[in-house]
Give the backbone structure.
Amino acid sequence: MEARAITRYVRLSPHRGRLVADAIRGKDVSEALRIVSLSSTKGARLIRKTLESAIANAENNYDIDVDSLFVARAAVDMGSSLRRLKPRAMGRADIMRRPTSHITIVVSEKKGE
């Protein structure tokens, strides 16, 4: 059985989020929580909240023991970009793109248990 949590439209670059997601993929949830708690990046804080939500979903919705969980999938996908105008020379304007991300964390039970 697996449980998931999705956080959408997070103001985070997908590249920065994937650095943290790659570090926790396949790890036990206790070790994954330790990794994101010790990391000081913005992506780690947002992924930690999503990971805690996935763990709570597994515990409350499916009655899965938390000690038997591991991070089956961790993905950070591109969301829509916020577009802002930046003034430039001679009355022109450039478009600044502020990226957003969708964070998906799936936790699953270990097969042997």
Observations:
- The CA atoms of residues 7 and 33 lie 17 Å apart.
- The chain has three helices and five strands.
- The radius of gyration is 17 Å.
